[in-house]
């Protein structure tokens, strides 16, 4: 890990370095780059998306490299967020087509999914995990070692991407043929609920990897405990014939009425 202080500062950051490393400065730099597409590394963002499915540990090793080279854990390139937004828009339009929604209804659904489901829920979960990790999981509470809010948001985006692909893309090929039309058939809710199990399981696992990658956190294994509840809900849903995908489709249609 690179030193965060200059050799003549007696343990304190110089005024110029301190200003450069404040949360506000990092946030300003990140948001400013949203307007400069040519400066974004989309190829690397696509690489990360691929490895979030095949080897998510490699993605978090890159966060270590960023800390060593740029002295921050969070992404400084918004390319991943931009590509994720494009994925979200395309998959939501696909949902609108599969559910026979009109243009206006699909647009309403898109706004809901982007600004509420992704951004709104993401801000809430990221802030909650940021508070929990800094309050309960730090090995030695210190101003020099804490979880950046931007990193917590990046962890959410990493975990959200596989969930999005499974529930908003792969599931589209089954909705009108197996999952919803045959919602009272065992195969229908088994296929749909199994996709939900895999998607949420991915979310929990990648979230755990994100916080487990930080060397100054302890007891991160507690982030895997929700797997027990997830497994219980899955068994109950299959046993009782609950169809989560059908409920999602009803919810989406209710939103745009």
From TrEMBL:
Transmembrane domains' residue ranges: 79-98, 110-132, 159-179, 186-205, 225-252
Pfam families hit by this protein: UNC-50
Superkingdom assignment: Eukaryota
One cellular component (GO) term of this entry: nuclear inner membrane
Topology of the protein relative to the lipid bilayer: Multi-pass membrane protein
Primary localization: nucleus
Cell inner membrane recorded as keyword: no
Keyword Hydrolase attributed: no
Entry-linked InterPro entries: UNC-50
Alphabetically ordered keywords of this record: Membrane, Transmembrane, Transmembrane helix
Compartments reported by the entry: Nucleus inner membrane
Known role: Involved in the cell surface expression of neuronal nicotinic receptors. Binds RNA.
Recorded family membership: Belongs to the unc-50 family.
Protein known as: Unc-50 homolog (C. elegans)
Source organism of the structure: Seriola lalandi dorsalis
UniProt lineage: Eukaryota, Metazoa, Chordata, Craniata, Vertebrata
């Amino acid at each position: 890990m690179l030193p965060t202080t200059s050799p003549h500062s007696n343990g304190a950051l110089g005024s110029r370095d301190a200003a450069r490393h404040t949360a506000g400065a990092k946030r300003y730099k990140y948001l400013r780059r949203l307007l400069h597409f040519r400066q974004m590394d989309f190829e690397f963002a696509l690489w990360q998306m691929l490895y979030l499915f095949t080897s998510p540990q490699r993605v978090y090793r890159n966060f270590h490299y960023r800390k060593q080279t740029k002295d921050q854990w969070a992404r400084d390139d918004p390319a991943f967020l931009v590509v994720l937004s494009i994925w979200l828009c395309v998959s939501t339009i696909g949902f609108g087509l599969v559910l026979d929604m009109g243009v206006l209804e699909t647009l309403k659904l898109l706004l809901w999914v982007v600004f509420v489901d992704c951004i709104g829920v993401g801000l809430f979960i990221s802030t909650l995990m940021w508070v929990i990790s800094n309050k309960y999981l730090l090995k030695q509470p210190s101003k020099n070692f804490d979880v950046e809010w931007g990193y917590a948001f990046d962890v959410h985006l990493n975990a959200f991407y596989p969930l999005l692909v499974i529930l908003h893309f792969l599931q589209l090929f089954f909705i009108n043929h197996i999952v919803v039309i045959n919602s009272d058939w065992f195969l229908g809710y088994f296929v749909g609920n199994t996709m939900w199990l895999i998607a949420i399981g991915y979310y929990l696992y990648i979230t755990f990897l994100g916080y487990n990658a930080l060397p100054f956190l302890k007891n991160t294994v507690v982030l895997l405990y929700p797997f027990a509840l997830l497994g219980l809900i899955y068994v109950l849903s299959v046993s009782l014939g609950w169809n989560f995908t059908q409920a999602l489709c009803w919810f989406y249609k209710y939103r745009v009425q």
